[in-house]
Amino acid sequence: MPLWTTPGRQLNNTARLTLQNVPLQDEKLLIVNVNLADVSDMYGAEIQMRYNPAQLKVRDNDTRLDGIQIKPGPLIAFDNRFVVQNMADPETGTIDFAFTLLRSATPIEGDGVLATIVFEILGSGPYSL
Length: 129
Prior knowledge:
Layout: E1 3-4, E2 16-22, E3 29-42, E4 44-50, E5 56-58, E6 71-72, E7 81-89, E8 94-101, E9 108-121
Antiparallel strand pairs: 1-4, 2-3, 3-9, 4-8, 5-9, 6-9, 7-8
């Protein structure tokens, strides 16, 4: 997963990405948080994930927009950011999500949820991402 500090300069990959299953009462949904930890001076990020479309279907976070989107997390919940790519492809079972901070934004530090993915369960597990 690429992480950027300032435009054009990539971090040394000291940040960590983890996936966290969010417990739910609904057995037909699987909610996954994409967490970042130990982030320092982050200016942007891109994640690409694969899932089995025979088992899982991404639930669209914003039906007003074309395509299927995941939910940007609280780590980037401010005005001075731009989501460059936010697309789930149900045919190929891929998710592409990328954002960058705008010029006046302070780089991101610390830990937090970068994005949340809500899957509808179509087939039996185990599930892999």
